[in-house]
Specification:
Elements: H1 13-42, H2 47-63, H3 73-99, E1 108-113, H4 119-129, E2 135-141, E3 144-149, H5 156-171
Antiparallel strand pairs: 1-3, 2-3
Helix pairs in contact: 1-2, 3-5, 4-5
Length: 174
């Protein structure tokens, strides 16, 4: 004979409560992360704007069902070392080209074939390419990233390919 659920507790109550509290806890953690980012970037100022912005970001992430995924610390270290090395060496190269009129400058739009299918990697790659001196990405469509290079003759493709691989190692492939 099957056991009937008691009248005091709805049949799904025990399954809904942990998920609901997990969602609220996740939103609280997200809010704290956004607040921390605001504090870091604003030097602890502008809270009248920062708190509502963090709440809006938290709500948008929950509404879009974006989830923080664990990062691989070893991959993060490799990405950080690569990015800092490229940032300084690329900055030095751009400064030399700007100050020395005989060094080649051959700007132009190029395309780069993306190998990753992860939309987060693609978006982050597009943003980070613009932070590296000598390159600027405008957008990606399908499997193509559109990049403006300061010198089309330089091997910028290898740098972008390495950055794509490091981001894939960090965030994983979908």
């Amino acid at each position: 004979m099957a056991e009937q659920p008691s009248q005091a507790e709805p049949p799904c109550a025990s399954h809904d409560a942990p998920q609901r509290s997990h969602t609220l806890a996740g939103m609280l953690i997200d809010f704290c992360l956004w607040i921390g980012l605001w504090a870091l970037l604003s030097h602890g100022q502008g809270w009248a704007f920062g708190i509502p912005l963090a709440a809006l970001a938290t709500f948008a992430a929950a509404r879009l069902q974006l989830a923080w995924r664990p990062l691989r610390l070893r991959a993060f270290g490799a990405l950080l070392v690569f990015f800092l090395r490229e940032l300084f060496s690329g900055g030095w190269d751009v400064a030399r080209r700007a100050l020395h009129p005989r060094l080649p400058v051959d700007p132009g739009w190029q395309t780069f074939s993306l190998t990753t299918r992860n939309p987060r990697v693609r978006l982050l790659l597009s943003a980070m390419v613009g932070l590296l001196p000598g390159t600027l990405s405008s957008h990606f469509e399908a499997n193509i990233l559109h990049v403006h290079a300061l010198d089309r003759q330089q091997d910028w493709q290898a740098t972008v390919a390495r950055l794509e691989q490091l981001l894939t190692d960090l965030l994983g492939e979908q």
